[in-house]
Design goal:
alpha+beta, eight-stranded antiparallel beta sheet, 36% helix, globular, binds adenosine monophosphate, binds magnesium ion
Length: 329
Amino acid sequence: MEGAMVLRRFLMFAGCLLWSAVVTADWYTDEQAIMGTVIRTELWSDDPLTAAEAIMLVNEEMHRIDRLMSTYKPDSEISRVNRDAAENPVRISAELLDLLARGIEMSRLSHGAFDITYASVGQMYDFRAGVRPDEKQINAILPAIDYRFVELDPAERTVSFARPGVRIDLGGIAKGYAVERGVGILRGQGIEHGLVSAGGDSRVLGDRRGAPWIVGVRDPRNSDWVVARLPLIDEAISTSGDYERFFEEDGVRYHHIISPVTGHSAGEVRSVTIIGPNATMTDGLSTSVFVMGVQDGLQLIDSLDDFEAVIVDKHGQLHQSDGFLPPKK
Ligand code: AMP
Ligand code: MG
């Protein structure tokens, strides 16, 4: 009798354990408006507290990066640089120094298509309010656009601008960097399957438990349609599109990706999607290829190991890098 009782207790206990495993081992998702975009975190965990803690840490990191890099926040580190670096060297954090160096590296790689000093003219656009500079204003400020005006001194940890009028903005790599950091946090919390995305930039951790993550590339002119679906495992994906922030005037689309040569929105393509092993890189490359256009852009991607591209050009035509094409016989 006593034995049966013990057995029954044991079975009830085991049943409870099983029940809690069934109800708590699950996908957890969260969305927050941070960095002027939607931050989405998805993860698999067998414990809701671990999941909640991991999500909270990711969101805190996003706020921290925003405080560092937002040009809309007058007290951010980057705003201080923009205010003072033409006058005298500005001492900055090792993190910002590193990101500026990566921005400059991306300029070299893209032969100047990516240029954080695009902001010298970029700051004159307000896509929400439909404001843009006129030809005279653009021509007056174009000489202030050149990444070589950004001088870094790693030993002193300072940045200075070689001439007045220079402004910088890390918007072309900041979100990729943020999601890369976010996934690093998930990994540090013991998560093995997850995703962090910030608008057009995502990084996946592991697979989706037995299957790859599938990320759709939307049709740039119809948000309900996709032009491609890409399977991803432990990879980053970034899309730059002319539909993200724009306004139209007299049939012309003014959008947020600016050619450093003309000071106008780059017009050769509608969207560029890059996949690769690192989100800061895929983010910078998607912006770069957008400015470079199909031919030069694909040439750049084909010259890099581990990165692939899907481009929708200005006519709606799809192009892809070598790695997506069937092998040549
Ligand atoms: P993405 O959506 O990643 O292509 O980033 C677009 C953002 O990059 C814009 O909102 C700007 O902050 C910034 N940006 C625009 N044009 C350039 C450029 N030519 N080089 C570097 N960053 C740029
Ligand atoms: Mg980008």
